[in-house]
Design brief:
single chain, alpha+beta, Alpha-D-Glucose-1,6-Bisphosphate, Chain A, domain 4, 4 helices, START_lipid_transfer, START-like_dom_sf, ACO12 thioesterase, START_lipid-bd_dom, lipid binding
């Protein structure tokens, strides 16, 4: 578990530090970037929120609150609090056209910054849990690397960056967005800002 948790945080930190991000869209408080490396597509959503970074961290690290602003989360159940900083959740997501609803078993690792210039981190990856085997009513999907980095912009505002390394399980929710025929990423980001503020 210690290794999984360390590699969860390390994978997100590594993804965030990659160079070569291309900006694809800019709104007032939201910027969307993509990064392609071989067959791997990642995206980053940067959001400006008028709340202290520690408040954003506390709201974004509890995944049971995710349904308040993310319509891709139908349900989110806490399966296991491994420690104060590590929790395992079972998430269900709505079906995309002609498919069964999807579900995910995820490890969420949260870290406070060790130094003032470092961000708060909430890292997410799929794990296998014997107690929650795949069910015939859902299409079990995988998250390789996703999560939030929250940078302080002073005492009352912060920059929230959401990252996701896209897998086939996540792609159906993004395909229309990345081709420009849907605005679900922007809409979700604006809902997230509204929720935080």
């Amino acid at each position: 578990q210690a290794y999984l948790s360390y590699s969860n945080i390390a994978a997100l930190t590594h993804l965030a530090r990659k160079s070569g991000w291309d900006i694809t869209r800019t709104l007032d408080n939201v910027k969307i970037w993509t990064h392609e490396e071989g067959a791997v597509l990642s995206f980053k959503v940067e959001m400006q929120a008028k709340v202290p970074s520690r408040v954003a961290f506390s709201l974004l690290s509890d995944f049971r609150l995710r349904q308040c602003w993310d319509r891709h989360f139908l349900t989110c159940e806490l399966l296991q609090a491994v420690s104060e900083e590590e929790k395992i959740y079972h998430v269900t997501a709505p079906p995309t056209t002609g498919q069964k609803p999807r579900d995910f078993v995820i490890l969420v690792s949260q870290r406070q910054p060790c130094r003032p210039q470092e961000p708060y981190t909430v890292a997410v990856r799929s794990v296998t849990l014997r107690a929650v085997p795949p069910s015939p009513e859902f299409c079990r999907s995988e998250i390789l690397c996703a999560g939030f980095q929250i940078h302080s912009n002073g005492s009352s505002s912060c920059t929230v960056c959401y990252f996701n390394q896209v897998t086939s399980g996540v792609m159906p929710y993004l395909a229309a967005n990345l081709t420009g025929s849907s605005k679900s990423i922007e809409d979700t980001a604006l809902e997230c800002i509204k929720f935080l503020e």
